Amino acid sequence: MAAYWVAPGAKLKNLVLLCASLLFYAWGEPWFVLVLIGQIALNYVAAVGIGGREGRARKLAVAIGVALNLLLLGLFKYADFVVATVNRLLPEALGPFALPGLARLTRPRSPTQPEARPSCNSKEFMRRSGTLIRVRFLRPIFSRP
């Protein structure tokens, strides 16, 4: 606090506040300082781009700057939620059906081997592809709270 009050001029006071903020974030999680420096650089470049344009180009520069800031916010605020949700749903809901089918369809074939074509009977197709799934194996998955 003392460095802020002693610093002459607004530019130097802003620099003291910037350094204090970066030190504060470095104390908690050092790599966040790199994110903050990146966001500061992004906002500086966006501000220079906005200041040097008129009309439609200016609106586009504002839109791009806002979109990139919102992307960073969404990435750091909601990425964990999205990853946890996908990890919870994918193996339980799609994994037993989609992944074995994809493995069957993407398996290398010889030129003489016919392509895999699902018939009307999906149970027969799953049996042929080696992925017949019995309901008793799925019950524990779908009965979780």
At a glance:
The chain is mostly helical and 145 residues long. It has six helices and no strands.
Number of strands: 0
Q: β content, as a range?
A: under 5%
> Which segments are poorly predicted (pLDDT under 50) over 5 or more consecutive residues?
130-136
| Class based on secondary structure composition and strand pairing | mainly alpha
Helix proportion range: over 70%
Helix count? 6
- Major beta-sheet overview: none
Overall mean pLDDT: 75
What is the H-and-E element order? HHHHHH
Shape: elongated
Kindly report how far apart the N and C termini lie.
51 Å
Radius of gyration: 28 Å
Secondary-structure map with pairings?
Elements: H1 2-6, H2 10-28, H3 31-51, H4 55-105, H5 122-128, H6 135-142
Task: Characterize the structure shown.
By secondary structure, the protein is mostly helical. 77% of the residues lie in helices and 0% in strands. It contains six helices and no strands. It has helices spanning 2-6, 10-28, 31-51, 55-105, 122-128, 135-142. Helix 3 packs across helix 4 (55-105). The two termini are 51 Å apart.
